[in-house]
Amino acid sequence: MKVRKFVLEDLKRVYEIENMSFNQSYEINIFKQLYEMGVGFLVAEKDNYVIGYIIFWIKNDREGHIISIAVDKNYRRLGVGSKLLSRAINVLSLLEIDKVMLEVNENNNSAVEFYKSFKFRIDRIVPNYYENQDGAIVMYLPTDW
């Protein structure tokens, strides 16, 4: 498995992974717009087949933000998400940002535990964050790089 930069040819496959991973997914044009904005956009691939992705950016010059991360359901729990998140954190650390933030559905316990394994901490809960009225757990990674 290797991690590389997203290219537009990956768009359809990333969108498929997004749809299989989330009840409320981004529209395909959002991924294209994010790419065109120059955000961090990485994919994991195995045998030239995209199996996961992560999108991240820098807000307010000093805050990293994980926008989305997802792995094909057939490749979960094999370290793909960990490799993607590690790479994104590494890129953000090179930019010496102050902290890394993300939001996760309050009902997604496995994702919360995944982020905690990377030393993310719970900051707060935002009620009714998602369209279906689920709340979001806002998590942050304190930085000391």
From TrEMBL:
Please give the Gene Ontology molecular function terms for this protein: mycothiol synthase activity; protein-N-terminal amino-acid acetyltransferase activity
Q: Does the keyword Transferase apply?
A: yes
Gene Ontology CC terms, in alphabetical order: NatA complex
What keywords sit in the KW lines?
Acyltransferase, Transferase
What top-tier enzyme class does this entry carry?
A: transferase
Q: Which Gene3D superfamilies match?
A: 3.40.630.30
Q: Which segments constitute the N-acetyltransferase domain?
A: 1-144
The record, for Pfam families, names: Acetyltransf_1
Look up keyword Hydrolase and say if it applies: no
From which domain of life does this come?
A: Archaea
Q: What is its EC number?
A: 2.3.1.189
* NCBIfam families linked: rimI (TIGR01575)
Protein name from the UniProt record: Mycothiol acetyltransferase
